[in-house]
């Protein structure tokens, strides 16, 4: 007899946490280390204690609660985050933590002790919306980011410092970080693939590498009526060619390569003036690090050629570079098998966005479970996932945790 | 013996008027109907009176001074404007009016009476920087624009109304408009062609037609990491393709076709978000009205195809449509001949920008003389033309006026 999750109990917690920092019209604003984040943390700690977990807080404010196992040793950890972007949804992050609580609640209800301990964790500032970088808490916890440097980080609006805010909200703890026996994270896909393909569960194979570049093209401002084409140095035309080249490179590489030009600005930006300067960003992602690097190099070559041909100068600046992260193949297979055993359609897929899980991947078997996002929307107050899909994802999570932790009836 | 202009006298007036509304660091701000414009007008009227001209002001504030001829009848008119953009140079407009004064001064100095009267005119609000449309005074004077409608025009910043400002600065007159025997305008090129080709005088054959369109592309906002290329509706990529198409159409048509994308904006404009909306403007110009229309139609077809291919919707809105204006072929030839007679290199060329002259072209023989603009700069405090070129242009103007007005020793 396998324990079963309760969709009702899980959704109750989703909506309860969703009240904290709730925005008019839907969604939440629980920016990291704000009063709303503190209220969410206080609620979470109380929930953990109600479930009998023993709660720890570390120096960067990560919270985890441990349900003891029959044996001592590292726990199977279920984690995510409860901070949000300024106009976030109810599910991004929160679902991962609350499904962890539901796993514990289901084990409790079944009166089931596991061999290994089970931990539920919420990591500080995953979003990076108020303090950069993102995945700050999990990064510190797993040794990728420096604690002191992170504590000294000032908010992007200059208003506050991480360490001071942790003190202010009472979440600067002293527990030592732990490396779990395995790490699992249930998350909304934040993309359209599962919904479009009608698939219930994503077995996430890893996180795409990220290659962000800002290009600044400088030409010469001129009167749009009086300057013949041959005498122009049009920065905007170079930028348009870079944008088209990014799209073409993605098409030629094929999936999972993506390329996005999200920022495109002209200066002076007047109808009848040839632009002197253009600034654009190109966001390239791929699960294959070598292919990603090659795409970035090819884009740069094409950008330089376009600038040269137009008599413009080109500057480029890396805004972000993250190598792809691969999850544990055995664990990905276990997620797939668990979904199939529940008659849930399942698909292996990469994550296009970053997640706390990627910080654990180098140190312990790690994987993620995705469920469909309505219209692929996320970081949006209209973010939505269906209750059936949430329950299915939580059940797969529970089943895999039982396998990993070694269930005892 | 032909009369000669005095470069020193002309430059003296250029710098004197340049003191009125002078900006720190150079250039002037004499926005139409402001106190600075009034001060410029007062100075101009005094100069006209000193030169013995009989001054008239019409209902839209145009100022002209007439030097009588041996015969009555319509004058040969030399005109331009003394209003400027907010950060204008010393030469745009002012040079045309002041070279007219210099023509009169040279005729006076030579004790020469012409057969026809000679008029020097400054038209209200040529720039259109404070009140739209531009070429307002000459447009009303020549019957293209409605007087009452123009008097009721509110400033683009909402702060004032043309008629009230004319009253306030004391320049709402009552003189009847006149149709001259011929109209001449000396102007800085505001483009780089003469300087680049090392030519002293442009014999302006007409004004290019203008075809401005604003395109708004609407797609779907999506996460840049989690949305496969095939599932995107990227408004920015459509906009980039429209920009490239505009450039290609200009290249394929060849000179004098020009195409400029001066505005290009993405929304929401974030590095990692597929743009939902893009707005761009395309400024097409050509001296051939049919070719210009065809270029506009082809651009629209390509824009629609690009939007369709990307699953985006396209809206388009005409921002400006002006048919090309052709100047008087005989008069253009006279300017060319006058330049050659003075051993000045000369080239027939269209004007890429609009000028008061185009309002006169349908009603009387009209042409313009261009002189080189350093680096093609205009509407810029660094606008500059060399004294030698200014003197050469004014001399050609004087020589042509003598021919047209019928000189008497």
Chain-wise SSE layout:
Two copies of one chain form a homodimer.
Chain A: H1 7-18, H2 35-50, E1 54-57, E2 63-67, E3 76-80, H3 94-109, E4 113-114, E5 118-122, H4 136-141, H5 147-151, H6 162-169, E6 182-188, H7 193-197, E7 201-207, E8 209-218, E9 222-223, H8 235-253, E10 258-260, E11 264-267, E12 273-274, E13 277-286, H9 289-309, E14 313-322, E15 325-326, H10 329-341, E16 346-351, H11 357-360, E17 366-371, H12 387-405, E18 407-408
Parallel strand pairs in A: 3-5, 3-6, 6-17, 7-16
Antiparallel strand pairs in A: 1-2, 2-5, 4-18, 7-15, 7-17, 8-13, 8-14, 9-12, 10-13, 11-13
Helix pairs in contact in A: 1-3, 3-12, 8-9, 10-12
Description:
The structure is a homodimer of 409-residue chains. By secondary structure, chain A is of the alpha+beta class. Chain A folds into two domains: 7-207 and 324-408, Aminopeptidase (3-Layer(aba) Sandwich); 209-322, Alpha-Beta Plaits (2-Layer Sandwich), CATH 3.30.70. Chain A is built from twelve helices and 18 strands. Chain A has helices at 7-18, 35-50, 94-109, 136-141, 147-151, 162-169, 193-197, 235-253, 289-309, 329-341, 357-360, 387-405, and strands at 54-57, 63-67, 76-80, 113-114, 118-122, 182-188, 201-207, 209-218, 222-223, 258-260, 264-267, 273-274, 277-286, 313-322, 325-326, 346-351, 366-371, 407-408. In chain A, the strands form four sheets. In chain A, strands 1, 2, 3, 5, 6, 7, 15, 16 and 17 form a nine-stranded mixed beta sheet that branches. In chain A, strands 8, 10, 11, 13 and 14 form a five-stranded antiparallel beta sheet that branches. In chain A, β1 and β2 form a beta hairpin. In chain A, α3 crosses α12 and α8 packs antiparallel against α9. The first copy, chain A, is elongated, with a radius of gyration of 23 Å. Chain A starts with 6 loop residues before the first helix and ends with a strand. Chains A and B meet through β9, α8, β10, β11 and β12 of A and β9, α8, β10, β11 and β12 of B.
């Amino acid at each position: 007899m396998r324990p079963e999750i309760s969709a009702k109990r899980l959704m109750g917690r989703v909506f309860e946490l969703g009240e904290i920092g709730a925005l008019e019209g839907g969604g939440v604003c629980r920016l990291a280390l704000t009063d709303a984040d503190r209220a969410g943390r206080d609620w979470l700690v109380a929930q953990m204690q109600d479930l009998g977990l023993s709660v720890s807080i570390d120096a960067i404010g990560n919270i985890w609660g441990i349900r003891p196992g029959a044996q001592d040793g590292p726990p199977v950890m279920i984690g995510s985050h409860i901070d949000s972007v300024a106009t976030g949804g109810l599910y991004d992050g929160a679902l991962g933590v609350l499904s962890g609580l539901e796993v514990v609640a289901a084990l409790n209800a079944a009166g089931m002790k596991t061999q290994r301990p089970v931990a539920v964790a919420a990591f500080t500032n995953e979003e990076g919306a108020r303090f950069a970088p993102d995945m700050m808490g999990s990064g510190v916890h797993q040794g990728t980011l420096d604690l002191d440097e992170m504590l000294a980080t000032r908010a992007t609006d200059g208003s506050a410092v991480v360490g001071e805010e942790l003190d202010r909200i009472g979440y600067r703890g002293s527990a030592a970080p732990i490396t779990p026996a395995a790490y699992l994270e249930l998350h909304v896909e934040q993309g359209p693939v599962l919904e479009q393909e009608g698939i219930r569960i994503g077995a996430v194979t890893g996180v795409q590498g990220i290659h962000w570049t800002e290009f600044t093209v400088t030409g010469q401002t001129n009167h749009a009526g009086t300057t013949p084409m041959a005498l122009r140095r049009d920065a905007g035309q170079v930028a348009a060619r870079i944008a088209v080249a990014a799209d073409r490179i993605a098409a030629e590489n094929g999936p999972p390569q993506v390329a996005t030009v999200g920022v495109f600005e002209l200066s002076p930006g007047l109808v009848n003036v040839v632009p002197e300067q253009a600034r654009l960003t190109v966001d390239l992602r791929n699960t294959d690090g070598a292919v990603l690097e090659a795409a970035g190099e090819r884009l740069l070559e094409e950008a330089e050629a376009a600038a040269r041909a137009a008599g413009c100068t080109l500057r480029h600046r890396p805004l972000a570079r993250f190598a792809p992260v691969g999850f544990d193949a055995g664990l990905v297979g276990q997620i797939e098998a668990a979904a199939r055993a529940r008659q849930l359609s399942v698909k292996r897929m990469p994550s296009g966005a970053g997640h706390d899980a990627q910080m654990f991947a180098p140190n312990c078997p790690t994987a993620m479970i995705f469920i469909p996002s309505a219209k692929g929307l996320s970081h949006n107050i209209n973010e939505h996932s269906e209750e059936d899909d949430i329950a299915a994802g939580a059940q797969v999570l529970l089943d895999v945790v039982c396998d990993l932790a070694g269930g005892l009836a």
